[in-house]
Amino acid sequence: MRSSTAAIQAATVWWLCSTPSAFGDNFTLEVDRLGAAIKSLPPAAGADSVYLPGERGFEEMERRSRAGIPLARGTVSRLLALASKLNVAVPEGVA
User: In a 3-state reduction of DSSP, which class is residue 49?
Assistant: First the structure.
């Protein structure tokens, strides 16, 4: 369980993050500038793009929402065996 001090600190951080004006009048402009500067950097060797925090995860979420979440063959085999044991129908294309 969180101590009351930790809870107060967490609430304070949340308030600061949800209140950009606490950082000055130009905070959102400066964040936008920083993001643009980071995105203009050349990607690392072997990378296609430079990502800001959360961008890669958002792309992955979009991809998995369309195509599904990849499962290891062993996991699929165990799930199919359990579905058979429990007499649960397996969706088409899974087996």
Answer: coil
Please answer whether residues 95 and 80 qualify as being in contact, where contact means their C-beta atoms are separated by less than 8 angstroms. Answer: yes
Q: What is the pLDDT of residues 49-66, one digit of tens each?
A: 999 988 999 999 999 999
d(CA 73, CA 71): 6
Rounded CA-CA distance 82/76 in Å is 10
Cα 39 to Cα 31: distance, rounded to the nearest angstrom: 12
* C-beta of residue 60 within 8 angstroms of C-beta of residue 68: no
0.85 cut: is pTM over it? no
Q: Which amino acid is at 73?
A: R
